[in-house]
Design goal:
mainly beta; 43 strands; 3 helices; six-stranded mixed β-sheet; about 40% strand
């Protein structure tokens, strides 16, 4: 033991120094072999900005509304041509990629043939700034990777309507056909679409061409669009939906719901389908069978109190039924109003009237405004006001124990001393519309189009247009680079429609119109429409000659078309349904094309411009999209104008003339190409 201790004491200094040297060597080795690494920015990283509502939306979050995610990134640029989802689309060879415009496509155009477009365009391999497809940019050899992510701008969307893009998908709807056609409408012209990705049940659809093949049961669909902003940063917008496919069972589709109403009559539509085929539907109101007015339109007379509406459908041994409870409560007017006001034309600017409201023999104070300016009276009954030149709106509002009375009157005054040709700002926007002031409408629905442009002739889109009916804002039905369409819901009597347009510099133009709505007859008929089925481009003027059809209150154009085809022995194929996204895909009847004779001058042009064409590629018993050429399909016009929305969004009026026509090339041969929302012209001749 003593010898061991002496040996340790003799070499302890050497041991200490050896440990110090070993520690220093380990530290230097670790520092030399270590490099600083950071995780590169993942382009798929999501920043949730808000949960948006559907365009028809409510104000709170709901499990029936799609989720909207907005992201912004400056690290990638991948040019993307928007997809036309409801008409045959030109192939990429027909129009160079760098000239394609990211315009939304209308529902009136024939649907694109699969395989003719590429929704996810490939980056330019010659662009040195193009990032790899996975979103990561590899650092140069010998240089450390950057130690910071690019800035991500979170766009807070507080409004209820999606400001970037919309689709025709109805969230949480049940469909019976696995082929699900989708339209995407881009809303902001300042954002350039770069790429669109579609996922079905979490799996990316690499071959997406406007139609999604659903699987039986629940289908979760996500659309993600990447836009380039004016500052060249990228903005990513995602929206998710859920669609249920039930191709085996009978599915009943109707607008009915459990509700309380104040009107004795209830008008609704109802259909039943099993897969692509219709099922027999029977409707009962309080255990009594209700016959349809026409097609799938029904009108029920309710009893006061609780009413039970039962829908039963049967086909090949299968059965489905739905039951709804509708409570009819007669409107209880707690506040009565006595006034000599009415919609009228005044002879002078000085205007007097009286108005008094009572409830349970108690006077109810009224708040009265003229053109939004408060008016007072010394005795709370008689009023004297000064009218402005043009249209004046007088509003009366009274409240009593939770009950509210609201009335509105339109007083028109034309000042003879007012300059009939007032000076117009030459730089103000210009408004053109097919709405005529003083027109009468039988029924409560009227569709209109507006064509607003700047002073220099540039198109003003729907986001810079405000349409009001009796002071209520009306959202647009469809908006493209040519026109913006609206569906007006009117009240019986005189209605005031105001259209306001403004340009990016804040210059505005406002026009006011009066439209009178006439209530329908007891049977619900508001008039007749003349409708025909034509194939003049094939040398067949009419497959169905012009036929007059009754129009019922609130009836969609798709129901009238359905009745026309069935009455004349035709069957047809479609996408969507009679209430939403209806697109006529094909019609069939034995021997309908026995006398095809395409004009030679037309076929010469079609062959020249089409990607694929074959004069013999058709069946004598049917006529479908993509027959003869890749740009063929069905379109329709109303009074010579081709709408930019589908049949299920069309509401016809008394005297309308509707032509359902076959085209061989995107409507250019029948004068209907403008409905596509593009600036390409129709051909010089219409066949």
């Amino acid at each position: 033991m003593k010898k061991t201790k002496n040996a340790f004491m003799k070499y302890k200094n050497y041991i200490y120094y050896s440990l110090i040297v070993l520690l220093l060597f380990s530290t230097i080795t670790y520092a030399a072999t270590s490099t600083e690494e950071t995780t590169p920015f993942d382009f798929n990283e999501k920043v949730v900005a808000s949960t948006l509502k559907l365009a028809s939306g409510g104000s709170g979050s709901s499990d029936t509304e799609p989720n909207q995610t907005i992201e912004n990134d400056a690290d990638q640029a991948n040019p993307q041509q928007p997809t036309n989802l409801d008409k045959p689309q030109k192939e990429l060879q027909e129009q160079p990629h760098d000239q394609q415009k990211p315009e939304p496509e209308p529902q009136n155009k024939p649907m694109e043939k699969p395989g003719t477009t590429t929704p996810n365009a490939k980056p330019n391999s010659n662009d040195k700034n193009t990032a790899p497809a996975d979103g990561n940019t590899a650092p140069a050899l010998g240089k450390p990777k950057p130690n910071a992510k690019p800035d991500i701008e979170i766009v807070d969307v507080a409004d209820q309507q999606n400001r970037y893009f919309t689709t025709n998908i109805t969230n949480n709807e049940t469909v019976t056909s696995p082929l699900y056609n989708v339209n995407v409408n881009h809303l902001d012209d300042t954002l350039i679409p770069q790429e669109m990705n579609v996922k079905l049940n979490g799996k990316k659809l690499d071959d997406y061409q406007g139609v999604i093949m659903l699987t039986e049961g629940t289908n979760d669909i996500q659309f993600q669009v990447i836009y380039k902003q004016t500052n060249n940063k990228l903005l990513r917008v995602s929206q998710s939906y859920r669609v249920m496919l039930n191709a085996h069972d009978i599915v009943i589709t109707t607008q009915l719901k459990d509700q309380t109403v104040n009107e004795e009559s209830l008008t609704f539509t109802a259909t039943a389908t099993q897969g692509e085929l219709d099922a027999k539907l029977t409707v009962f109101v309080n255990n009594k069978e209700l016959k349809p007015l026409a097609g799938s339109a029904y009108k029920a007379t309710l009893a006061e109190g609780k009413n039970t509406l039962k829908l039963t459908a049967q086909r090949h041994g299968k059965k489905a039924d739905q039951t709804y409870t509708v409570i009819y409560e007669k409107e209880k007017i707690a506040i009565s109003l006595k006034t000599d006001l009415k919609d009228q034309q005044a002879n002078g600017a000085d205007f007097s009237f009286y108005a008094k409201a009572t409830a349970n023999e108690v006077d109810v104070p009224l708040r009265i405004t003229v053109n939004d300016q408060l008016v007072k009276s010394s005795d709370s009954t008689n009023y004297h006001v000064q009218l402005s030149n043009g249209t004046n709106i007088i509003k009366l509002v009274g409240q009593y124990k939770g009950e509210q009375l609201e009335r509105q009157y339109t007083i028109t005054y034309n000042d003879p001393n007012e300059n009939e040709n007032p000076q117009v700002d030459p730089d103000a926007p210009k408004l053109v519309t097919d709405l005529k002031s003083g027109s009468k409408v039988k029924g409560d629905i009227k569709t209109i189009n507006v064509w607003p442009v700047t002073a220099s002739g540039e198109r003003i889109r729907g986001k810079n247009v405000q349409v009001q009916v009796n002071g209520e804002n009306i959202p647009f039905t469809w908006d493209d680079s040519v026109k913006t369409s609206y569906k007006l819901t009117l009240r019986t009597g005189q209605n005031t429609v105001t259209i306001k347009v403004w340009d990016d510099e804040g210059r505005t133009v406002t026009e006011t119109f009066t439209v009178t709505s006439v209530a329908p007859a007891e049977d619900g008929v508001i008039g007749q429409v003349t409708i025909s089925l034509e194939a003049s481009v094939l040398g067949i003027p009419y497959l169905i000659k012009p036929t007059k059809m009754d129009i019922h209150q609130g009836q969609r154009g798709s129901y009238i078309l359905d009745q026309l085809l069935r009455n004349n022995g035709f069957t047809y194929g479609k996408t969507g349904n009679l209430d939403s996204s209806f697109y006529l895909r094909d019609v069939s009847k034995p021997g309908m094309l026995n006398n095809v004779a395409i004009p030679d001058d037309l076929w010469e042009v079609v062959e020249k411009v089409s990607t694929t064409s074959n004069r013999e590629a058709y069946s004598p018993d049917s006529l479908s999209e993509f027959d003869f050429a890749n740009g063929s399909g069905w379109m329709y016009s109303v009074n010579g104008d081709y709408p930019n929305y589908g049949f299920s969004d069309a509401y016809f009026l008394e005297g309308d003339v509707v032509r359902v026509r076959y085209t061989l090339h995107y409507g250019k041969d029948i004068g209907g190409h403008d409905s596509s929302g593009t600036s390409d012209a129709n051909w010089d001749k219409e066949w």
